[in-house]
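Quick start: what a row looks like.
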Amino acid sequence: MGNWVVVVQYYSDTYRTEFIRRGLETEEQALEELRAAVHTYLPSRHVVEQWRQVYRLAGQESYLVVIKGRLTKWECSLRVAELISDTTDPAAPERARTEDVVTEDAVPEDAAPEDSAAEVSDGPQDRIPPGY
């Protein structure tokens, strides 16, 4: 099963996330599905669409979709996500780990605090806690 999904997020009495598509093998497949969904997605609430506006958030593959119905306007965000941790799949955390984890002893003792912060922020920030 693939690790990529397409999700929609919106506020309707509470903040909600729905999966539009699950189990995609690659990020490219997920992005293709995302681009198709921005023009076809309809909320589970019964909205009779009169018009639709699609905004791409700058620098991201994430979209804001505004759908005007007869009585209301519906706003939601569509984006892709990658599964990096799954307690039912022991291999998922291993796939999320990187080989270049920065440790405290990797930073020289005479380095300024901002230097060590820059080194840490260069790589991925999602880390699996020890013991998972």
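That is the whole record. The longest strand covers residues 14-24. The helical segments are 27-40, 91-96, 113-122.
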